């Protein structure tokens, strides 16, 4: 009998162009959290008691050891890196979406310039820095963009992962080509 093995849609992604690098990220467990009406505070207390993190405010990214919580829209969050405590389901929807999302890291000197070609977000570190996150467009794809040290982490729905990686690669090549021309090495 044939055994099918689950493989990431970004398996093997490790692209280096100029001073930029795009690589796959294994997030581990990813759970979508959405408190029932009037239960936001209670869900936040349950998160705090069990994992020492709170329910995020709009645009907030919280990291505590291996546990991360990202704001994911109005009254929604992603819990990443751990299984959710049982108490959370008493206060809202808790859905395992691990297999539905893919993530990549974009690092390097000119990554903000490459990413700026694809998203309307203001990527300047003093405006959108570490500790923040946003749901936005990446080209024509909805993405969760999170600043990290030296770059950005980008989460997309699994079915859009290869398209997102391709869009980012094209932007990286464009930025690298402009840098070569500016240095007198291109054309």
TrEMBL record:
Q: What is this protein called?
A: Sarcosine oxidase subunit gamma
Q: What is the lineage of its organism?
A: Bacteria, Pseudomonadati, Pseudomonadota, Alphaproteobacteria, Rhodobacterales
Protein's organism = Aliiruegeria haliotis
């Amino acid at each position: 009998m044939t055994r099918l093995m689950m493989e990431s849609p970004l398996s093997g992604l490790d692209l280096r162009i100029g001073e930029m690098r795009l690589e796959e990220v294994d997030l581990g467990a990813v759970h979508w959290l959405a408190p029932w009406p009037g239960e936001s505070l209670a869900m936040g207390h349950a998160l705090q008691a069990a994992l020492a993190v709170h329910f995020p405010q709009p645009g907030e990214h919280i990291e505590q050891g291996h546990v991360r919580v990202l704001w994911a829209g109005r009254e929604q969050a992603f819990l990443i890196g751990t299984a959710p405590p049982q108490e959370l389901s008493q206060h809202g929807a808790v859905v395992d979406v691990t297999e539905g999302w893919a993530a990549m890291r974009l690092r390097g000197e000119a990554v903000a310039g490459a990413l700026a070609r694809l998203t309307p977000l203001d990527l300047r570190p003093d405006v959108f820095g570490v500790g923040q996150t946003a749901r936005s467009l990446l080209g024509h794809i909805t993405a969760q963009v999170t600043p990290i040290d030296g770059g950005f982490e980008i989460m997309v729905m699994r079915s859009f992962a290869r398209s997102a990686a391709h869009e980012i690669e094209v932007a990286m090549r464009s930025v690298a080509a402009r840098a070569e021309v500016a240095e007198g090495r291109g054309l």
